UniProtKB/TrEMBL annotation:
Entry annotated with the keyword ATP-binding: no
Domain (Tyr recombinase) ranges: 188-371
GO biological process: DNA integration; DNA recombination
Signal peptide coordinates: none
Organism the protein comes from: Cognatiyoonia koreensis
Protein name per UniProt: Site-specific recombinase XerD
Keywords annotated in UniProt: DNA integration, DNA recombination, DNA-binding
Example GO molecular function: DNA binding
Amino acid sequence: MAKLTKRHVESIAPNTKERILWDDELSGFGLRVYPTGRKVYVVQYKLHGRTRRKNLGKHGVVTADEARREAKLCQADVARGADPSAERKSRLRSPSIKELGERFLSEHVALHCKPTTHYDYTNLLKNVVNPVLGGIKASEITFADIQAFHLKRRETPYQANRGVMVLSKMLNLAEDWGLRPMNTNPTRRVKRYPEEEKKRYLDEDEQERLGGVLADMLAQGEISRYVFAAFYLLLLTGCRLGEIQKLKWDYVTRTHLELPDSKTGRRRIPLPPPARRLLDSLEQREGNPYVILGTHGSGHYNDLQKPWRKIRAVAGLDDVRLHDLRHTYASVAVMNGIDPFMLKEILGHKNLSTTLRYAHLSDDAVQKAAGKIANRLAGALGNMA
């Protein structure tokens, strides 16, 4: 045994068998010498009655002095109850963010979330998260990594915030699965970007204009009766796009749409007489269970966004999304005195706060209401100087 110094290490000749030479100054610090001549510094320690070794680096890449300092640090960690060798192996086994995302989708999202959520998370990970963070180990990703990702996506704040949200869910599960220490989720202190709430809905003139365009395009054969019905049903029921697009005749009664599953679970949607009459006008296709039929086959109409883009362009409503038809339903309901609690049930919201965000009153309605209040007060106060 001798002190492991640069000169001594370089003087050691390889043997026919692998061997470890121990330092005579620092207990547990040694040099593994392979028959090929490769030399690697190691530290040996005992924890919970078991002897473990950790490689500190190859001689030539790491100096003897650097390896000695690292060995002392490892021994200090062991004295505090840590296991450097196990931690290193854990890091090597740790999945990347991309691999963690795949497990998250298959073992959590597929079992506990709606198919639409699975689809959204899959696209978010593939197109937003993985190109930036996919290669980083889940055990090593830091606040700085996620903050940099969030900053890079600042021009698309919604995507940036949703990316951090899905990372937060994934890293919480990584803790539950033993892939990270508990309570180390680095997403917690990332400040989300403000998101502008979209309040677009159709006023009465726009509603009339849309109705006229739909009727003209139907008469000219530019859209089918089923596409025409789909857009009217969205307005007349306040349903979500998927609820109408994938509506089956088995769900339709004289007074309700009985959806066995939706974004918020089972739903019973009131079916007003105009919507009922519209449904009665639609022909059913033998062997096809869907209400909104495509041009052929046994499924439903696949892409209502395509005809909608044409319809809104003709109607001069280029900024109106299909989901804004649902906004319009909620706004008309509130402006006509429908109680928000009742509207919550009609729209199928879990929380009243969601309903209130949908129920955007128009400037004209607010102005008229304020005028009524002021006129009443002015009448009570009498003549104003």
